[in-house]
Amino acid sequence: MELCTVDACRKPVKAKRMCAMHHQRWRRHGDPGVTKVRRAAEPTPCKWVNCAKPSLSKGYCSKHYYIHRTRAKARPEA
Q: What digits encode the pLDDT tens for the residues 35-52?
C-alpha cells in the first residue's frame, strides 16, 4: 500500500500521491500544507418582526424558519 508523500503523513494515498485530507487541501488552496480554521459567522437576530432570537437558517430563528418554510410549500408556484 502506497503512503501519502506529504512529510510525516502515514495515511494511504487517495489521489496525486496524497491522502484524502492533503489532496482536499491541495484542491481548495493549491497547497497541501495549508490549514485554515473555518470560523462561524457572527450571530444575527431573526428577520421576523419583533423577534430577537439568533438566526439559524436563512435569517430566521428555528421557530420562524419552520413557519417560513411551511408557508412557502403552501403557496402555489406561478
A: 888 787 788 999 999 999
